[in-house]
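Notebook B, p. 112. Complex prediction, attempt 2.
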Amino acid sequence: MGVTIKQIAELAGVSRGTVDRAIHGRGDVNPETKEKIERVMRETGYRPNAVAKALKAAQNPVTLDVLVPSSPFYADLLRGVRAAEEFYAHYGVRLRVAERFELNGASQAAMLRKLSEEHTDGIIMAALDVPAVREAVSCAAEKVPVITCNSDLTGVKRLCFVGQDHFAAGRASGTLMGKMLPQGGEVAVVPGSRDMLAHMQRAAGFRQALQEQGEYELLLDVRETGESDKRAYEVVKELLDSRKNLAGICMTGGGQAGAGAALADSGRAGEIRLACYDTLPGTVEHIKNGTADYTIAQDPFLQGCLPVKLMYEYLALGKEPGRERIFTRIDIRVKDNVEDQEYDMFTGEDR
Amino acid sequence: MGVTIKQIAELAGVSRGTVDRAIHGRGDVNPETKEKIERVMRETGYRPNAVAKALKAAQNPVTLDVLVPSSPFYADLLRGVRAAEEFYAHYGVRLRVAERFELNGASQAAMLRKLSEEHTDGIIMAALDVPAVREAVSCAAEKVPVITCNSDLTGVKRLCFVGQDHFAAGRASGTLMGKMLPQGGEVAVVPGSRDMLAHMQRAAGFRQALQEQGEYELLLDVRETGESDKRAYEVVKELLDSRKNLAGICMTGGGQAGAGAALADSGRAGEIRLACYDTLPGTVEHIKNGTADYTIAQDPFLQGCLPVKLMYEYLALGKEPGRERIFTRIDIRVKDNVEDQEYDMFTGEDR
DNA sequence: TTGAAAGCGGTACCAT
DNA sequence: ATGGTACCGCTTTCAA
């Protein structure tokens, strides 16, 4: 199997307790003894047994707070959180998932302050990157580790971020759009919210990649859709009515189902390319029926379960995440794979 | 944390040994006692602790044989195998990865026969679906569980298959090609090998999806490329020379780097769409420089590590895979994400 | 400074 | 048919 602490102890002529102390630097160990133990470890290639470690670690349970808005947008991410919760139940990890956590700066900041009164061992959150939240998180991060998921916070000392590189995702979308419109043409970039960094980064990446491929007339001063399908319907309808030469539309997020509906109602679906992001049910529907051409997802499930894993390893095993940002994949979906489920390594179920 | 066997035993007024026997049906247990234990388990919602189970199970190590050709095509799959090996080292799983396992029926059958002389607890293999291999595997499968990965065997009682749904992947490629050639045109399907079921399925899916989108003239009687880049270069050059109206090429596998080179040399790269499969280095290169438009990968890493997980769970925990086929994802890559690495849940490294 | 021993949850063997 | 106990590898406490 592998070398155990017991074997190291025997080879070094000491007890298991001493080896443990030497490894972790807790308690006093005679320098010579330590030297010898380390030599034996090196020679035998000792690797700690993570299973045994986990069994032991479960004796000191940790409580993690999960602050993720419970909107449909985060449904898949929350499924990832639940899967990780199930998996880590026997590892002494307890999750407290906030109900009614809202996508609103003041509410989030208040929530964080309330949290600091109870005991928590770590915070996992999808936060709004606004001053009030940044400040509250900075304060919390002084005491406990914070991992951001899906959306990051700028200038805050969080342990790690798990989410998409939106600029790169935007580029991938722009590359596809360019290949679908080889002859150039008018392409509109429809903003969700100009306050959302993610949306702006997607737009920037899209433009950059598209313009590398040819002459396109980009329409950038389109009205924001917000999160509203109704609003998006109007915005896109207006666009379709006013631009008879429109060849492509890139949504940056928010109201994509409404945009699809407007395109379908105009009778120009299939003729005008429609690019989306993520896999909200309405978006998926438009991909399936051909109104939208492709969508770029970001593995929200992983954005939910990976932070739990990272937090467990940090708290229970003392292992830092390797990187400060972990990007989830740029997941291009068309009609034929938009509904595909993937095998999940945690639960063994579909995701 | 959770209910333990010890607690169940106390509540039922018996010993832990009895509870264990009642759960697993080994040894004799008084029906009344069993009834009572089961009731307590139901009421408390007992869930066995997988960590403790694993620690114990490591006492009875298992040896798995991995028969995967060591060609570049399987490099990523083998990296997955290695990652799983590392992860499961402490679970009492030992892997024996065959060196010089070849993509050749007679050789594979011989290998399997040799294997049956040594002791093995399970076989993981990427096999050729030809009679000699089928027969040898059928024979081996009588004694030990067999999991196929990447390529399946027809009519063999293997435990499970982990790989891509090639027809669906072909469809996705056809859908993309159609969107990139909205005005129709001549599209060639270049076969790798007509003996490879995967290649034929890709071709069939591609045709189906493409034809749903418009009028295309499909060129289907193209010569096979085999696995040879040189051959593929010739085949594609011939195609380019003879078909001045060619608008798209779909490779089904094998020699894709050669095909890209031929297209690049012809000076018509960018003008003619080129669709590929998988992410061999040569293919990736052509995607990056724009000669090829997209490639469809199949998560080879998962095809390597998942079989090890399934085999461990089957042998050590007595858990059957949920499905007979587990499809890995249809992973569309363009220039901007073709080199992306993903976080791997097993090793915590990139893959 | 070091050793001995108990315990995490589950399994397996030996006694009874 | 059932109970008691030892063990997996690691950590932690208590005693020396």
